[in-house]
Structures are given as C-alpha cells and as structure tokens.
Amino acid sequence: MSQNEKSVKGLDSIQKLRSLSSDAEFSLEERLAFALSAVELSSKTKIDSVLINSNRTLSSVYLNRGEYEKYRKLNHNNLKLAKKINDSLVIGIASLNLGWYHHFNMVQNDSAYYYYSRAAKTFDEIGELDRQVTTLVNLADIQDTERDYIGAEANSIKAIKILERLPETENYLSTKWILYNLLGVINLKLELYNASLEYHNMAYDIGKKMEFGFIDQMLSLNNMAFVYRKLGNHAKALELYNTVLENKEVYNEEDPTFYPLVLENLAFTKYEAKHSDIDNIEQMLKTAYKISDSLEDPITKLAVSIDLAKFYYGQKNKDSSLVYAKQAYDIGGETNSNQIWLESMQLLSKINDGEAGKAYLNQYIKLSDSLLLNERKNRNKFARIEFETDKLEEENKRISRERLWLTILSIGLLFTALLIYIIITQRARNKELKFKQDQQQANEEIYNLMLSQQDKVDEARASEKKRISEELHDGILGRLFGTRLSLDSLNFSEGKDAIKSRANYISELKTIEEDIRKVSHDLNTDFVSGSGFMDIISELIEKQIKAYQLQYDFKYTDDINWEFVPNKTKINIYRIIQETLQNIYKHAEANEVKISIELKNNVILLAIIDDGKGFEINKSKKGIGLKNINSRVNELEGSVKFYSEINKGTSVLIDIPYKS
Predict the structure, then answer these.
(1) What local confidence, expressed as pLDDT, does residue 74 receive?
(2) DSSP for 303-325?
(3) Contact 587, 617 (CB under 8 A)
(4) Are the C-beta atoms of 147 and 185 separated by less than 8 Å?
C-alpha cells in the first residue's frame, strides 16, 4: 500500500470515529472513547485542520459529560491552532465556546464578554450570521445582568436585524422571541413602560407563530401584566393574569415553577387594586409560597416572600411581615437578586425600631450607591474590553505583518537570481500576450466589418423588395384596375351573352388583382432577420469542436432578435464561447461540451458545460482565461458564475441583459 493510500485510509478512520462519537445511540463513555481515538489518530497526521475538527468533536463530548475544565482547555488549544492556520470560523467557534464556559459555568462575566466580543466580530467578518446572532444574544444577556441596559438594547436590536435576513425556522422564531422579551424587560427597568409593552406584544405575536410557542405566549402575557401593574392599570393586569392562570393545565407540566409566580402576581395585583377579599389574597400568596418552597425554586420563593412581607406590613401584622422580609433578605443575598434584596432592606428598616432599623437603612443606601457606581463602571468596562480586544488584534496583525516582511526580505536575498530570471521570462510572456491581444482586437474589427456588411446586404435586399412592391402596386395594379372599370361600364350594353362574357372577364380581372395585391403585400412585409448571428456561432462551434475532436450539443431559442442586439454584445458572446472552448481543449481533458443560449425574463442566458477533470476555482481565479471572460461579462453589465468539481466537470453560466 502506498503512502498516499495509507493517508486516505487514516482520514477515513478518523471521520468514522468522529461520526461514532456523535451518535446518541452509544453511551457517553463509548462516545468519549471514540472521540479520544479520533484525536489520537489526528495528532499523528500532523495536519492542524484535521486535529481541530477532532478536538471540536471531543469538546462536545466533554460538554455533554459535564467535564467543563477539559472542555475549556480543549477550546483554548483549538483557538491557538486556528490562529496558527488563520481559520476564522474555528477562531469564532472556539471563542464562542470559551465565552459560554465563563458565562454559564463560572459566571465570570468579564471573561465571557471578552470571548463573546471576539467571536461576534469574527462571525461578522466571515458572514456567519447564525452564530453571530447567538453571540449577540449572550452579550446582551451579560449586559442586562450587569445593568448596562443601553448596551444590551443595542446588541439585541443588532441581532434582530440579522435575524430578519435568515429563513424563518422554529429556532429563528424562538431566538427572536428571546430578544423581544429581553427588550421588553430592559425597557421596564429603564421605566419606559410603553416601549416595554410594545416589545412584549411583539414577543407574544412571535409566540403565536411558533409551533411550540404556547408557554412563550403565556410568559409574554405575564410580563405585559406586570408592566400594566407598574402603570397602575390593575384591571388590565388582572385580566391578563387570569388568562394565564386559566391555561395552567397546559404549561404546568412543562414548567411547574410558572404557576406559583402567576398566582403570586395575581394575588398581589388584587391587593394593590384594594380588593376587599383580603383572606383570599392571603391564601393565594401562601399557596404560591408553599408550591415554590416544595419545588425548591428560590427565585419564585423570593418574589412571593417579599410580596407576603409587603402584604402583612400593609395589614399592620409586623411579626409576619418581619418573618417574610427577613426570608426575602436572606434569599436575595444568596441569589444576588439585588432589586428584591434592596426592597427587603427598605422594608426591614421600617419594621425594625431603633438601631436595627437604621442598620438596614444604611445597608440599603450603601448597596444602592454601590449598584449605581457599578452600573457606570460596567458600561466603561465593556467598552474598554472591546477596545482592548481590538487593540490586541491590531497588535497581533502588526506582528504578523512584520514577520511576513522579514520572511519576504530573507527569501528575496536568497532568490535574487531567480527573480531576475522570472522578470525576463515574464517580459517575453507579456510580449506574447500583447501580440494575442492585438490579434484579438483585429479579429473583433473583422467581425464588426462582417456584421456591418451583412446589415448592408439586408438593407439592400429590403430596399429592392420595396421598389418591386411599389412598381407592382402603382403600375400594373393601377392599369388592371382601370381595365376592370372599363369592362364594368360595358355591362350596360344589350345582349345577354355579351353581359355574361364581360362578367366573366371582370371576375377574372378581380382574381388577378387579388393575386398581384397578395404578391405586393408579401414583398412589402418586413421579414425577421438576425438568424445570421446564430449561423456564425454554429460555424464557430463546429470548427473548434472538429479541431479539438470533441462531441457537442448546441441548443438555442429563436425568440432573441439578434438583428437589434448591439454588435458589442454579439462580439463578446462570440469571444466568450471561443475563449471557453479553448480553455476546455487546453485544460479540461473533456469528451463532451454542451452549449445553450436562451432568453428568460429579458436576460440572455449562456451556458457552457463540459465533462472534464474540473479545477479548484479559488486557486484559478487569476488565470488569464477566466479574467478575460469576467472582463467581457462586466463590460456587458452581466454576471458570470463558475461551478467546478474535481473529476466532475465545469459549468460556466453567464447572464447578459437583453437590450434590443
């Protein structure tokens, strides 16, 4: 077995192991073993891109197994390898994964923001829109958590604008709901209540479009109700809360923590609206507390605790108010729920007398001032992180440029003689190219003269037809018409035989008149010319195909009036076909060529397809043949697309505006 065959077999084995490690039918232990084997084999190939892909597969297994530290290290390694080979996609993915690690696993928002910023910029540069949206959502979430509401709003809106350019899938709608919901929450925190309602309404409409969006709709109604509470519109808030509560059976199994939250909101809204059924309100709040406690849901329990504390304080039951306010205080500190934590401090300062009350008040003032200061710092911090990230990238680019120049200078000193030889050779090639260009220009002039001569022949032919038509109409037809009138006047002569004879002559003359009129009409009718250009193209194809010993199939439609197509267009079409056939003969090693010319939606479509060996388009863009074709198509304000696969042939598809 040759070295090349061994290499191909090794890559196949790696690909198979990766596939097995992603197969959910195997246990996580088995998938880990497959992924580790793939990485081991990939390391032996010494090909960075192969190792990167195997590392990505292994990192997914680590993530599923909850081995987050190994997940982090592997993505750091991939980031280094990706920078080495300048693979922007992998740089973006590794940065996104590291951002996720610090964001959701370690809750280190500074580090998470740094990696997310790098990922977002990379995805933007390479047009990776799906991943850019995911990254922007995570950035906005961090900024909302850190109270940088303006930054969170800006990134959310940017993500929505990108989503508008993507297909409307279920995942697309789910992400869009998250963004509009986040904008509603942000504007609520900024006390822009009308804007908050508008965004929550938009989120609700998106939920209705989703196949599995019912619970999202209920969340949007709950959020809208809360905004109406803030606006003092308790009637509307109660209406929405009751709607959500009525659908308990639908969402309770999927999210049991949602029901106690809605129950608590409904109860406290009734209390704020001064409903008289105090006992019922108290019972609803206690039920919500009991459920959230049994579910071990600290967030809902915190919300219920603070509302129970406020409720009992309003009922002048200080003992019960103190119990729930203290509980809200403890849970708020543990969960870093600063807003409710502040509310509990404020309430405790009112419930407790003397020094204890003052202590809570001082703590409230201190935390409030600290949060305001942190909010300002965070805005500057995130801007600074982005600035430092850009600065670091610029520095890396500068170092890379310096290394590149140093390498170029070193190579230049070593290969000066070779460069001189290349220059001399290039000059000779340039002369040859100039000669070919002059020859091409001469051919175009000849072709122009040929087309011009054909136009003159057509013009002379039409003129001669018109002259004969006029002669028939004004001469012969006029005399015949006069003769008929004379014969017609003799009808008044006596004798039945004479009248019958004259009538026959008159009828015959009418027939002759109609025949001549028809000939005159046919001669004077304008005829469609222009098929001559297709004859020229057919002759070109036949000659070149015969010389190149190829099989061919040439099809064209008759709905293009080539007579009125500008000569410039026809010349360039002629040359494009000629140039392409030459390229096929020189490089493609093809057996068959298919050429078609048709008209669709006022666009001339030229297609040239061969069954040759194909080529790598990105590596061949600088070839003279492709440059010439691109140049001619651009001159006609058209577009050209090249499709090619190794051993599967090449297709050249050209669109040219039809300007008749």
Answers:
(1) 94
(2) HHHHHHHHHHHHTT-HHHHHHHH
(3) no
(4) no
Q: Indicate the pLDDT class of residue 512, thresholds 50, 70 and 90.
A: low
Count Cβ atoms below 10 Å from residue 430 Cβ, excluding itself: 10
Q: How many whole angstroms separate alpha carbon 508 and alpha carbon 266?
A: 105
Rounded to whole angstroms, the Cα distance separating 537 from 519 reads 34
Distance, in Å, from the CA atom of 325 to the CA atom of 331, rounded to the nearest integer, reads: 10
DSSP assignment letter at 493: S
For residue 558, the SS3 value is coil
- Identify the bridge partners of residue 643 per DSSP, sorted by sequence position: 651
Q: Name the 3-class secondary structure at 600.
A: strand
The pLDDT tens digits of the residues spanning 604-660 come to 999 999 999 888 877 765 566 778 888 889 988 899 998 988 888 999 999 999 876
Residue 26 confidence (pLDDT): 93
Contact in structure between 309 and 325 (CB atoms under 8 Å): yes
At CA 321, angle to CA 318 and CA 325, rounded to 5?
135
Residue 649's CB: how many other CB atoms inside 10 A? 21
Q: What percent of the chain has pLDDT over 90?
A: 43
**Gap between the Cα atoms of 214 and 562, Å rounded:** 60
Is 283 a residue whose pLDDT tops 50? yes
Between strands 592-600 and 603-610, the pairing is: antiparallel
Nearest to 573 by CA among 549, 552, 591, 598: 598
Q: Which two tokens stand for residue 11?
A: 């890559």
